[in-house]
Amino acid sequence: MNGLASEFDSFVRARTPALLRSAYLLTGDQYLAEDLVQSALARAHAAWPRLQAAGNAEAYTRQIMYNLRVSWWRKRRVSESLPGELPERPGNGQHDHSETTTTRLALRNALNELPPRQRAVIVLRFFEDRTEVQAAEILGVTVGTVKSQTAKALARLRAAAPVLLESYSNGVA
User: Fold this and answer.
1) What is the distance between the alpha carbons of residues 105 and 113, in angstroms, rounded to a whole number?
2) This model's pTM is above 0.70
3) CB 10 within 8 A of CB 2
4) Non-local CB neighbours of 25 within 8 Å, separated by 6+ positions
5) 11-57: per-residue pLDDT in tens?
6) Which DSSP string corresponds to 17-44?
7) Are 147 and 132 in contact (CB under 8 A)?
8) Is 13 exposed, middle or buried (0-12, 13-18, 19+ CB in 10 A)?
9) Domain coordinates of the chain in residue numbers?
10) Of 14, 123, 122, 2, which is closest to residue 58 (Cα–Cα)?
11) What CATH number is given for 98-169 in this structure?
């Protein structure tokens, strides 16, 4: 395996779990998330020599993921909704996971109820910690759209899963 192929392989092995988590939050479905990451990595592979030299491979790959997801919405494609599993993060295993599991399930169900654009805004703003301007640029919309979609999504999340507010105030989330 040559140097570039080896570097891409290392990148894929190291960053795929994080990319899958973001993709899952964007799609709400494990299989669609895997498809999204695979498509993004295929496109990143084509640009790898340039990306590796610039040192922004992950940012570029994430941008591809968001652009692909937006293009799926614009095509008005009806996606399958299959129950999926959010990849677990390794923990120290020393506490009761029942409350954390309940919170994760509530969050997953609440996110699945959001329309795709609102879900993407929530993922970008709160999971990826992007600014409103960055989220608008990634999604190809105005900052006002990001603000309004964020407000609507948060209102829907509060209504759909009040347990999230309780968990957040108890320090579980």
Assistant:
1) 12
2) no
3) no
4) 111, 119, 122, 123, 127
5) 999 999 999 999 998 888 899 899 999 999 999 998 888 877 777 88
6) HHHHHHHHHHHSSHHHHHHHHHHHHHHH
7) yes
8) exposed
9) 3-74, 98-169
10) 14
11) 1.10.10.10
